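Posting this for the archive.
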Amino acid sequence: MTTKRDDSPAPAPAPAPQGALRAFSRSLPMALLKAREDVMAGFRPNLRNHQITEQQWRALKALASHGEMRAGQLAQISLISMPSLTRILRDLGQRDLIQRRSEPGDQRTALVSLTPAGQALACLVGQGAECHYDRIADSFGPERLEQLHHLLAALSACLGCGQAEDDQDGKATDGIASQS
């Protein structure tokens, strides 16, 4: 016998008395962090199989999606701090996955792009990531997944902290963030 999932939202707890902390279960940062960890658990085996970290994958994916760019732009798009990105680019360069060159007219500015080996790896890892996306859509529902993307983009836009990036097909990316 199969049981039907109850997808209705849990009732909201009573508001906390003035000055008290809201219930831990109603902490938006914690709920988002838990959801991120649950989502990433399915991506991590694929990343491990290809010997790349989550942050390295974000950098590779951003370069595969957007092409050559300044390191600062890459840091912004991939949500990686510049000090961490410097280390990541060094490691990816040692593996011949990225290349750097000076920007014409400004020798201080480095442009970063994927090498053919980096493009091949991004494609390979991306195929595994798409399989996990299919599992998420099958489990959560494609319409609900699309709605979640829209809600998260709207939340970021409302708070004014995030920048909504559009992928080449016009869908909002997660910065993680859509394919970590």
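DSSP finds six helices and three strands in the chain. Residues 116-140 form the longest helix (25 residues).
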